[in-house]
Amino acid sequence: MTEHPRSGYDALELIGELYDAVPAYNARNDVAFYVEESRLAGGETLEIGCGTGRVLLPIARTGMRITGIDESPRMLDRCRLRLEQEPESARACASLRQADMRNFHLGKTFALATIPFRPFQHLLRVDDQTAALHAIHRHLDPGGRLVFDVFNPDMRLLVKDRTAETEDTPETKLPDGRSFRRASRVIEVHPARQVSDVELIYYLTAGASEEVRLVHAFSMRWYWRYEVEHLLARCGFDLVMIYGNFDRSPLNEGSPEMIFVAERH
Ligand SMILES: C[S@@+](CC[C@H](N)C(=O)[O-])C[C@H]1O[C@@H](n2cnc3c(N)ncnc32)[C@H](O)[C@@H]1O
Q1: Bridge-partner residues for 94, per DSSP?
Q2: Nearest CA to ligand 1 atom 13
Q3: 155/147 Cα distance (integer angstroms)
Q4: What is the pLDDT of residues 17-49, one digit of tens each?
Q5: Which domain holds residue 229?
Protein backbone atom coordinates (compact mmCIF):
# COMPACT_ATOMS: atom_id res chain seq x y z
CA MET A 1 0.00 0.00 0.00
CA THR A 2 1.38 3.44 -0.93
CA GLU A 3 1.25 5.98 1.86
CA HIS A 4 -0.69 9.07 0.77
CA PRO A 5 0.96 12.42 1.51
CA ARG A 6 -0.57 14.45 4.32
CA SER A 7 -1.51 17.47 2.19
CA GLY A 8 0.54 17.12 -1.00
CA TYR A 9 0.10 20.69 -2.28
CA ASP A 10 3.73 21.18 -3.24
CA ALA A 11 3.88 18.06 -5.43
CA LEU A 12 2.36 19.94 -8.41
CA GLU A 13 4.27 22.87 -9.92
CA LEU A 14 1.03 24.38 -11.19
CA ILE A 15 -0.97 23.88 -7.99
CA GLY A 16 -1.62 27.59 -7.29
CA GLU A 17 -2.91 28.37 -10.80
CA LEU A 18 -5.07 25.24 -10.83
CA TYR A 19 -6.47 25.91 -7.36
CA ASP A 20 -7.45 29.48 -8.27
CA ALA A 21 -9.21 28.34 -11.45
CA VAL A 22 -11.50 25.72 -9.85
CA PRO A 23 -15.00 27.27 -10.07
CA ALA A 24 -16.28 25.41 -6.96
CA TYR A 25 -13.54 27.00 -4.83
CA ASN A 26 -14.30 30.48 -6.17
CA ALA A 27 -18.01 29.94 -5.51
CA ARG A 28 -17.52 28.89 -1.86
CA ASN A 29 -19.80 30.89 0.41
CA ASP A 30 -17.28 31.39 3.23
CA VAL A 31 -15.52 34.65 2.32
CA ALA A 32 -18.11 37.10 3.71
CA PHE A 33 -18.25 35.01 6.91
CA TYR A 34 -14.49 35.22 7.52
CA VAL A 35 -14.37 38.93 6.58
CA GLU A 36 -17.09 39.52 9.18
CA GLU A 37 -15.20 37.50 11.83
CA SER A 38 -12.12 39.69 11.26
CA ARG A 39 -14.24 42.81 11.58
CA LEU A 40 -15.82 41.55 14.83
CA ALA A 41 -12.38 40.68 16.26
CA GLY A 42 -11.33 44.32 16.00
CA GLY A 43 -7.62 43.46 15.79
CA GLU A 44 -5.17 41.62 13.57
CA THR A 45 -6.13 38.23 12.07
CA LEU A 46 -3.82 35.24 11.69
CA GLU A 47 -4.97 33.02 8.83
CA ILE A 48 -3.60 29.51 9.04
CA GLY A 49 -3.28 27.60 5.75
CA CYS A 50 -3.96 30.78 3.76
CA GLY A 51 -3.15 29.08 0.44
CA THR A 52 -3.32 31.44 -2.54
CA GLY A 53 -5.18 34.14 -0.61
CA ARG A 54 -8.77 33.33 -1.57
CA VAL A 55 -9.93 34.57 1.87
CA LEU A 56 -6.86 36.58 2.90
CA LEU A 57 -7.00 39.04 -0.02
CA PRO A 58 -10.65 40.13 0.53
CA ILE A 59 -9.81 40.78 4.21
CA ALA A 60 -6.73 42.86 3.33
CA ARG A 61 -8.83 44.81 0.80
CA THR A 62 -11.10 46.03 3.60
CA GLY A 63 -8.09 47.60 5.33
CA MET A 64 -7.88 45.08 8.19
CA ARG A 65 -4.46 43.69 9.05
CA ILE A 66 -3.89 39.98 8.37
CA THR A 67 -0.92 37.60 8.52
CA GLY A 68 -1.15 34.42 6.47
CA ILE A 69 0.87 31.29 7.09
CA ASP A 70 0.99 28.18 4.91
CA GLU A 71 3.37 25.23 4.69
CA SER A 72 3.34 25.16 0.88
CA PRO A 73 5.87 27.47 -0.84
CA ARG A 74 3.98 27.07 -4.14
CA MET A 75 0.64 28.16 -2.69
CA LEU A 76 2.38 31.06 -0.95
CA ASP A 77 4.20 32.13 -4.16
CA ARG A 78 0.85 32.32 -5.87
CA CYS A 79 -0.58 34.32 -2.96
CA ARG A 80 2.39 36.75 -3.15
CA LEU A 81 1.85 37.21 -6.89
CA ARG A 82 -1.84 37.96 -6.37
CA LEU A 83 -1.02 40.33 -3.52
CA GLU A 84 1.39 42.26 -5.77
CA GLN A 85 -1.54 42.97 -8.10
CA GLU A 86 -3.56 44.55 -5.29
CA PRO A 87 -3.62 48.29 -4.52
CA GLU A 88 -0.98 49.54 -2.08
CA SER A 89 -3.63 49.92 0.67
CA ALA A 90 -4.35 46.15 0.60
CA ARG A 91 -0.69 45.18 0.21
CA ALA A 92 0.18 47.18 3.32
CA CYS A 93 -2.35 45.17 5.35
CA ALA A 94 -1.09 41.66 4.56
CA SER A 95 2.02 39.70 5.41
CA LEU A 96 2.86 36.11 4.55
CA ARG A 97 5.11 33.52 6.14
CA GLN A 98 5.90 29.94 5.28
CA ALA A 99 5.14 27.86 8.38
CA ASP A 100 3.67 24.58 9.48
CA MET A 101 0.68 25.14 11.76
CA ARG A 102 1.95 22.41 14.06
CA ASN A 103 5.04 24.39 15.01
CA PHE A 104 5.36 28.10 14.30
CA HIS A 105 6.70 31.18 16.07
CA LEU A 106 5.71 34.59 14.76
CA GLY A 107 6.77 36.58 17.84
CA LYS A 108 3.41 38.32 18.23
CA THR A 109 -0.20 37.65 19.17
CA PHE A 110 -3.46 38.19 17.31
CA ALA A 111 -7.09 39.02 18.09
CA LEU A 112 -8.29 36.20 15.83
CA ALA A 113 -6.93 33.02 14.25
CA THR A 114 -8.81 31.37 11.39
CA ILE A 115 -8.31 28.15 9.41
CA PRO A 116 -10.62 28.50 6.38
CA PHE A 117 -11.51 25.66 4.03
CA ARG A 118 -10.30 22.64 5.97
CA PRO A 119 -6.49 22.84 6.39
CA PHE A 120 -7.11 21.40 9.89
CA GLN A 121 -8.23 18.19 8.15
CA HIS A 122 -4.70 17.70 6.85
CA LEU A 123 -3.63 17.00 10.44
CA LEU A 124 -4.03 13.27 10.59
CA ARG A 125 -2.99 12.41 14.13
CA VAL A 126 -4.12 13.65 17.51
CA ASP A 127 -0.60 14.85 18.36
CA ASP A 128 -0.55 16.92 15.12
CA GLN A 129 -3.91 18.44 16.08
CA THR A 130 -2.95 19.29 19.68
CA ALA A 131 0.43 20.67 18.52
CA ALA A 132 -1.39 23.02 16.11
CA LEU A 133 -3.96 24.09 18.71
CA HIS A 134 -1.23 24.80 21.27
CA ALA A 135 0.76 26.82 18.71
CA ILE A 136 -2.38 28.80 17.83
CA HIS A 137 -3.15 29.35 21.53
CA ARG A 138 0.33 30.87 22.02
CA HIS A 139 -0.40 33.31 19.16
CA LEU A 140 -3.72 34.62 20.49
CA ASP A 141 -4.33 37.64 22.73
CA PRO A 142 -6.07 36.76 26.01
CA GLY A 143 -9.73 36.30 25.02
CA GLY A 144 -8.70 36.03 21.35
CA ARG A 145 -10.77 33.76 19.12
CA LEU A 146 -10.12 30.75 16.91
CA VAL A 147 -12.62 30.18 14.09
CA PHE A 148 -12.31 27.26 11.67
CA ASP A 149 -14.33 24.93 9.49
CA VAL A 150 -14.20 21.21 8.76
CA PHE A 151 -16.75 19.26 6.75
CA ASN A 152 -19.63 17.63 8.60
CA PRO A 153 -19.07 13.94 7.81
CA ASP A 154 -21.91 12.16 6.04
CA MET A 155 -21.71 8.51 7.13
CA ARG A 156 -23.41 7.26 3.95
CA LEU A 157 -20.79 8.98 1.81
CA LEU A 158 -17.92 7.73 3.95
CA VAL A 159 -18.79 4.08 3.33
CA LYS A 160 -19.71 4.48 -0.35
CA ASP A 161 -17.28 3.10 -2.93
CA ARG A 162 -15.77 6.18 -4.56
CA THR A 163 -12.68 4.58 -6.09
CA ALA A 164 -13.75 5.40 -9.66
CA GLU A 165 -12.76 8.79 -11.08
CA THR A 166 -15.73 11.19 -11.13
CA GLU A 167 -15.48 14.47 -13.02
CA ASP A 168 -16.01 17.40 -10.64
CA THR A 169 -14.78 20.23 -12.86
CA PRO A 170 -15.62 20.43 -16.57
CA GLU A 171 -13.20 21.99 -19.10
CA THR A 172 -11.95 25.23 -17.50
CA LYS A 173 -9.51 27.82 -18.88
CA LEU A 174 -6.31 28.85 -17.13
CA PRO A 175 -5.14 32.48 -17.48
CA ASP A 176 -2.21 31.37 -19.70
CA GLY A 177 -4.59 29.90 -22.33
CA ARG A 178 -4.21 26.28 -21.35
CA SER A 179 -7.23 24.44 -20.03
CA PHE A 180 -7.98 21.58 -17.69
CA ARG A 181 -10.74 19.36 -16.47
CA ARG A 182 -10.66 17.64 -13.10
CA ALA A 183 -11.83 14.37 -11.63
CA SER A 184 -11.63 13.12 -8.06
CA ARG A 185 -11.67 9.77 -6.31
CA VAL A 186 -11.25 8.26 -2.87
CA ILE A 187 -8.65 5.52 -3.10
CA GLU A 188 -9.07 4.13 0.37
CA VAL A 189 -10.92 4.84 3.61
CA HIS A 190 -9.40 4.01 7.01
CA PRO A 191 -12.29 4.13 9.51
CA ALA A 192 -10.18 3.32 12.56
CA ARG A 193 -7.99 6.36 11.83
CA GLN A 194 -10.86 8.51 10.42
CA VAL A 195 -8.76 9.13 7.31
CA SER A 196 -9.63 9.05 3.59
CA ASP A 197 -6.94 8.89 0.88
CA VAL A 198 -8.06 11.24 -1.87
CA GLU A 199 -6.84 12.06 -5.37
CA LEU A 200 -7.69 15.15 -7.38
CA ILE A 201 -6.75 14.40 -10.99
CA TYR A 202 -6.16 17.31 -13.34
CA TYR A 203 -6.15 16.69 -17.12
CA LEU A 204 -4.22 19.59 -18.60
CA THR A 205 -4.16 20.52 -22.30
CA ALA A 206 -2.48 23.20 -24.38
CA GLY A 207 -4.03 23.64 -27.85
CA ALA A 208 -3.73 20.47 -29.90
CA SER A 209 -1.09 18.91 -27.64
CA GLU A 210 -1.72 15.71 -25.73
CA GLU A 211 -3.48 15.77 -22.36
CA VAL A 212 -1.20 15.65 -19.31
CA ARG A 213 -2.50 13.86 -16.19
CA LEU A 214 -1.48 15.53 -12.92
CA VAL A 215 -2.41 14.00 -9.57
CA HIS A 216 -2.77 15.86 -6.29
CA ALA A 217 -2.82 13.02 -3.75
CA PHE A 218 -3.48 13.65 -0.07
CA SER A 219 -5.10 12.25 3.03
CA MET A 220 -7.94 13.91 4.88
CA ARG A 221 -8.95 13.38 8.47
CA TRP A 222 -12.65 13.60 9.22
CA TYR A 223 -13.79 14.82 12.63
CA TRP A 224 -16.83 14.21 14.78
CA ARG A 225 -18.33 17.21 16.49
CA TYR A 226 -17.66 16.13 20.07
CA GLU A 227 -14.05 15.13 19.41
CA VAL A 228 -13.34 18.69 18.23
CA GLU A 229 -15.03 20.01 21.36
CA HIS A 230 -12.75 17.78 23.47
CA LEU A 231 -9.65 18.79 21.49
CA LEU A 232 -10.43 22.47 22.01
CA ALA A 233 -11.02 22.01 25.75
CA ARG A 234 -7.78 20.06 26.08
CA CYS A 235 -5.79 22.82 24.39
CA GLY A 236 -7.05 25.80 26.40
CA PHE A 237 -10.10 26.96 24.43
CA ASP A 238 -13.71 27.59 25.49
CA LEU A 239 -16.28 26.75 22.86
CA VAL A 240 -18.41 29.77 21.96
CA MET A 241 -20.49 28.49 19.04
CA ILE A 242 -20.79 25.81 16.38
CA TYR A 243 -22.42 26.68 13.07
CA GLY A 244 -23.52 24.27 10.36
CA ASN A 245 -22.96 26.67 7.48
CA PHE A 246 -21.53 30.08 6.69
CA ASP A 247 -24.97 31.71 6.98
CA ARG A 248 -24.54 31.01 10.73
CA SER A 249 -27.32 28.42 10.79
CA PRO A 250 -27.06 25.87 13.62
CA LEU A 251 -25.34 22.52 13.12
CA ASN A 252 -27.75 19.69 12.31
CA GLU A 253 -27.61 16.30 10.54
CA GLY A 254 -27.76 17.76 7.05
CA SER A 255 -25.30 20.63 7.62
CA PRO A 256 -22.45 20.69 5.10
CA GLU A 257 -19.94 22.23 7.53
CA MET A 258 -18.96 22.25 11.18
CA ILE A 259 -17.70 25.75 11.96
CA PHE A 260 -16.18 26.13 15.42
CA VAL A 261 -15.84 29.45 17.22
CA ALA A 262 -13.67 29.17 20.33
CA GLU A 263 -12.07 31.59 22.74
CA ARG A 264 -8.65 31.19 24.32
CA HIS A 265 -8.51 31.17 28.10
C1 LIG B 1 -7.86 23.75 0.80
S2 LIG B 1 -6.47 24.80 0.95
C3 LIG B 1 -7.22 26.20 1.75
C4 LIG B 1 -6.51 27.49 1.37
C5 LIG B 1 -7.23 28.75 1.83
N6 LIG B 1 -7.40 28.77 3.28
C7 LIG B 1 -8.57 28.88 1.15
O8 LIG B 1 -9.56 28.96 1.87
O9 LIG B 1 -8.64 28.91 -0.08
C10 LIG B 1 -5.52 24.04 2.26
C11 LIG B 1 -4.21 24.76 2.56
O12 LIG B 1 -3.72 24.29 3.81
C13 LIG B 1 -2.32 24.24 3.72
N14 LIG B 1 -1.81 23.34 4.78
C15 LIG B 1 -2.00 22.02 4.88
N16 LIG B 1 -1.37 21.54 5.97
C17 LIG B 1 -0.78 22.61 6.57
C18 LIG B 1 0.03 22.77 7.75
N19 LIG B 1 0.38 21.73 8.53
N20 LIG B 1 0.47 24.00 8.06
C21 LIG B 1 0.16 25.06 7.28
N22 LIG B 1 -0.59 24.98 6.16
C23 LIG B 1 -1.05 23.76 5.81
C24 LIG B 1 -2.04 23.76 2.32
O25 LIG B 1 -0.72 24.02 1.91
C26 LIG B 1 -3.12 24.53 1.54
O27 LIG B 1 -2.62 25.76 1.07
Answers
A1: 66
A2: 49
A3: 25
A4: 999 999 999 999 999 999 999 999 999 999 999
A5: 9-152+223-264
